[in-house]
Amino acid sequence: MRVAKVVCRELGCGNVVAASTGPLVEDGRGGVTVWRCSGDESTIRECGVGPTDCNGRYSLHVICSESVQLVDGAGFCSGRLEVKSNQSWASVCEADFDQQDAEVVCGELGCGAPAALQGGLYGEGEGQTWDKEFQCKGNESLLLDCDTSDRKNNTCLPGNAVGLTCSEPDDVRLVGGGSRCAGGVEWYYQGEWRTVGAVDRIKEAVAAVVCRQLGCGSTVSVLPGNTTRVFGVECSGSEPSLRECRRINYLLPGFTVICSDLLVQPDIFLTDSMGGVSRGHQGPEVFRGYNFTITCSTQPQYPGGSFLLTFTGSNRTQTQPAVNHSAAFLFPAADDSHQGNYSCVYDNYVFSHNFSSECELLSLTVTASPLPAFIIRHVVVLLILLTAITTFYLYYKMCD
Q1: pTM, whole model, 2 decimals?
Q2: Considering Cα of 282, then 284, then 288, then 294, what sign does the dihedral take?
Q3: pLDDT tens-place values along the chain, 400 residues long
Q4: One-letter-per-residue 3-state SS of the chain
């Protein structure tokens, strides 16, 4: 991908969309081997190159975006947006670009969904500014396939050049570990999922890239894994995605990666059996004197584990084992000391390591019981008593 990046730049063809190895276009043709390329070079000649006999070998195939590029970003999927206009590159004004336009650009570059869209995020271009407003529907294949209209404003103020960050492509996964953040490494390459392998000294670096690309935190451990249909990669460990690593054309042993964000985020919710919980403007409210229950739960992932319920209003914590992946914490009578923020922390010991995951805060307010509800409650109790007395009276009357 680094070599391909230089090729696209040298040809004035925008960003790399894909790079792969394939048969030579012409048999018996000589060629060069490129062994040292950072991706920042202006031409291939600036990389480490040397002559080679390409007979019977594979050549590098490159697909460039041609008319769209992201520059000055940290990787292939982020940077300042530029569009090719009359053989030169023009920045796009933030006012002329929206989320649907961003979806088209990210798709055109082979990246994931847009993650951030902000003017001036990656600096200002030194050249011209694109003079049209894009009106994409979001399903176009290319940005220049979108409809355009004349700009509403004739000027684009400094700091308003579109900076776009797309998520990394969804072409890497971890399988067989019970979590999207644990398992054997697979890469979607040329239409199929293939097991990824690496030499022992490179595995930690590859694992760091995989965990980063999947949004799974950092690497916890690297274990031997499946070696079926393996092809090799080499990473430095700093790449934002696996496709920016070097692909190797000989087989290497596969491996399993365990990332730190192994457990899914648990859920927290509030229930009661007396009608003492209501939904207020600031979140759930419990009437003073009523009991309530806070339940922590998680998706079925690994057996066992426990839930720790923390309360920010004091140092009180409660712990219960996870039964059917949930735990219920009962509070018999609400008072002002129960008001505050609650959080569930799910802990589990898997893959010989302790993992934990915390839910979003539940903000609980304790309020006075409204008078109508208080009256209704006591009226209901009186009606129940009267019904019982009447029933007993009629029963004994009939027996007499």
Answers
A1: 0.72
A2: negative
A3: 888 889 998 998 988 888 877 666 565 566 778 877 888 888 988 888 877 766 656 678 889 998 999 988 877 889 999 998 778 888 898 888 899 999 999 999 988 899 888 877 887 777 788 888 899 998 899 999 999 988 766 667 767 888 999 988 888 999 999 999 999 999 987 788 889 999 889 999 999 999 999 999 999 999 988 676 678 888 989 888 888 888 877 778 899 999 999 999 999 998 876 666 777 667 788 888 888 999 999 999 999 999 999 998 677 789 999 999 999 999 988 888 898 999 999 999 999 999 999 999 999 988 887 655 555 555 666 777 778 777 776 666 666 6
A4: CHHHHHHHHHCCCCCEEEEEEEECCCCCCEEEEEEECCCCCCCHHHCEEEEEECCCCEEEEEEECCCEEEECCCCCCEEEEEEEECCEEEECEHHHCCHHHHHHHHHHCCCCCEEEEEECCCCCCCCCECCEEEECCCCCCCHHHCEEEECCCCCCCCCCEEEEEECCCCCEEEEEEEECCEEEEEEEECCEEEEEECCHHHHHHHHHHHHHHCCCCCEEEEEECCCCCEEEEECCCCCCCHHHCEEECCCCCEEEEEECCCCCCCEEEEECCCCCEEEECCEEEEECCCCEEEEEECCCCCCCCEEEEEECCCCCEEEEECECCEEEEEECCCCHHHCEEEEEEEEEEECCEEEEEECCCEEEEEECCCHHHHHHHHHHHHHHHHHHHHHHHHHHHHHC
